[in-house]
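Take a look at the protein record below and flag anything odd:
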Amino acid sequence: MGIQWRDSLAIGVELIDSQHKELLQRFNALLSACESGKGIDELKRLLVFLDDYIVKHFSDEEQLQRTSGYPGYEAHKKEHDGFIERVMAVKHEINSEGVAVHHVMETNNMLLKWLLNHISKVDVELGKFLRGAGV
């Protein structure tokens, strides 16, 4: 059982919304893999995806904020930086200890919190600003 995309999560910028949808699909793939006992293998794929995603997506989103004059840019960027630190900490631990089930659980929890606390709140607020600014 995964999490479905809802229009209420959209910020109204196709590039950003499609990136968020992709992250949600990857999260759902991890959940499905966990249900079938293949969470560790899927976690490895997810972490490779996140390497590129966090660089590209955060760059795109932050550029949009800067060019639109978004007043919450600094706080938003700080959340992005914190997420990057958490992903890097998991990767570092895996590199030094090997992949374990607790890494799968930790990553599931991290992504769920990101969806609930960042995308559905912080990014939705950005979308409201952008629509109000005519972007």
Remarks:
- The two ends are 35 Å apart (CA to CA).
- The chain has a mean pLDDT of 92.
